[in-house]
Amino acid sequence: MTRSKEPGTGSRDRTVLSRRHAPDHTDGAAGTNRERGSGTVLAAGLALVVMMAMALMLLLAQSAVLASRAASAADLAALAAADALRGLAPGEPCTVAAEVGARHGAAVVGCREGAGQTVEVRTELVERTVFGAAHGRSRAGPPP
């Protein structure tokens, strides 16, 4: 701020503060006024990115759990079908596999008897995620 004598005052020492060179809060190391609040926007954007990453991680974890459940259902169905094929349990092997799969929340989409009293079973979980249904595949037979 500069001080100047008011015109027409003569010898009186009245000064007027001039705004011409007043310190402006928009200049200098502190930044400009238009950048005010940019930290809030940056923090909000960062929080959104973190939340989206967490949501993606949860979806992937859910898919991994469902894939494990589908594999377990296929394993159990194949073991039950192999027991039925060998005569250790009553029923037709693929029918037994379908019943065991249904008890574990899976539908048997493929069942075939192989050589050496083996059974191969493919399952699909009834429960689905945004990535689709989980599938399992297993083969069982007599011990070596």
Task: Describe what this molecule looks like in 3D.
The protein has 144 residues and is of the alpha+beta class. The protein has one domain. Helix content is 42%, strand content 26%. It has 2 helices and 5 strands. The strands form 2 sheets. The protein has a 3-stranded antiparallel β-sheet with strand order 3-4-5. A two-stranded antiparallel sheet has the order 1-2. Strand 4 and strand 5 (132-140) form a beta hairpin. Helix 1 (38-86) packs antiparallel against helix 2 (93-103). It is rod-shaped, with a radius of gyration of 38 Å. The relative contact order is 0.13.
Keywords:
144 residues, alpha+beta, 3-stranded antiparallel beta sheet, two-stranded antiparallel ribbon, 2 helices, 26% strand
SSE blueprint:
Elements: E1 2-5, E2 15-18, H1 38-86, H2 93-103, E3 106-114, E4 118-129, E5 132-140
Antiparallel strand pairs: 1-2, 3-4, 4-5
Helix pairs in contact: 1-2
Give the number of DSSP strands: 5
Radius of gyration: 38 Å
For the largest beta-sheet, the strand count, sense and barrel status come to: 3 strands, antiparallel
Output the number of helix runs: 2
**What value does the average pLDDT take?**
84
Instruction: Tell me the overall shape.
Output: rod-shaped
What is the rounded distance between the termini? 97 Å
Share of β-strand residues: 25-35%
Structural class by sheet pairing and helices: alpha+beta
Instruction: Work out the helicity level.
Output: 40-55%
Low-confidence parts: none
Q: What spatial order of strands do you see in the largest sheet?
A: 3-4-5
Quaternary organisation of the protein chains: single chain
Tell me the count of domains: 1
Order of helices and strands: EEHHEEE
